[in-house]
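Hi team,

As requested, here is the filled-out complex form for the 4'-deoxy-4'-aminopyridoxal-5'-phosphate run. I kept the field names the same as last time so the parser does not choke. Let me know if anything looks off before we queue the next batch.

— J.
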Amino acid sequence: MNDLILRDAKHLWHPFTWQGAAEPIPIERGEGAWLIQPDGTRILDGISSWWAVTHGHACPEISARIAAQLEKIHHVMFAGFTHAPAIELAERLLALLPENQTRVFYVDNGATAVEAALKIAIQGAANRGEKRTKFLALEGGYHGDTFGAMSVGARAAFTAPFADHLFETAWIDVPIQNPETSLHQIRAHLAEGNVAGFIFEPLVQGAGGMRIYPAEHLDALLTECRNAGVPTIADEVMTGFGRTGTMFASDRLRVKPDLICLSKGLTGGTLPMGAVTCTEELYQTFYTGDRMKAFFHGHTFSASPIACAAALASLDLFEAPACRQGMARIQARHRAFAPRLAAHSAVRDVRVLGTLLAFDVVPPGSSGESSYFHPVKDRLQSMFLERGILLRPLGNVLYILPPYCIADNELEQIETVILEVLNLV
Ligand code: PMP
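And here is what came back:
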């Protein structure tokens, strides 16, 4: 194991790392909610490995479907060619998504789903003869690390070196405490014109600190956009595939988004893949007799047949009773655990949405202010790892977002360790 760490240190560049960061932990295998190290040490995954592994690690049903697809074809260029897994996946996704969604554009991951959606919004307007350059976004949001995605995400340490290269975005307060303020802000920006689109993480901002906000407040903002003819983009990269208690967070909205970005749980966290879906109206502004109105955007691995096969297997699992029961069990446990957590003196603002439970950790004597670089983050993470649990706090925001196959006794193990660790902060 030490050999792997040394070889890794010699040549690899990990995301979000610096000299002095904890050494990476080698993982060899996975099984259900468990990550297994080369020496057999087991780590219980409380966050679905970057929120993606919905059905557990090395899920055999997805592996089998991928293996079967590998026997047939690995890569099909998606300009000028098509294949059954891509078609079937689009049909099945659209059957699950809000009814106004009729088209699926495949990409490689979450950030490229956002990039494609932003480009569709800009070019959609251009194809109708309008130049629109400004996006509206919720303050504190996160949409990925590519330039477009950074431009519509919170301006923070992550984006600071690139500030001069990011395009114009106007910020709307997350409609939690003062929804009227958010409404006034969006009305004012829409009245100024030049708005290409409004992007948001529906119901909960993930990387921004698991901030949950009510569907009806978002509906009010979406209504304003609809009335102004401005396309709305739901970034469901994290919220999609059951995380918020319904298949998509958009299911809870009365006003359906025009574009929806998907990734992470799309393939059950097995293979990199993303998708943008949109309305027929938007698609028809591109699909005309004028070639210059085409969407000149494509990725080498768009609609990878292997990734599509993985996604189809993942959807089969979502439809199986075991997954639905698992999600219901997780929600019930979260609701039961929330009051126990709330009673702890180092805990503030316990919040539950579907299979997500989040809260702020406020160590004794600290100001209570939340921040991604809160000093308690690394301490918490290493205390959990020492106890065989993977939880990765966002600053001082701690959350559980487990794979749906997690057993009750495994969740209980996570809860017990959280309470133990909270007594040590
Ligand atoms: N949007 C949201 C809401 C996300 O949470 C993330 C990733 N955490 C992304 C976009 C970017 O996805 P990816 O990491 O696959 O580029």
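Two things worth flagging: The longest helix spans residues 321-342. The longest strand covers residues 101-107.

Thanks,
J.
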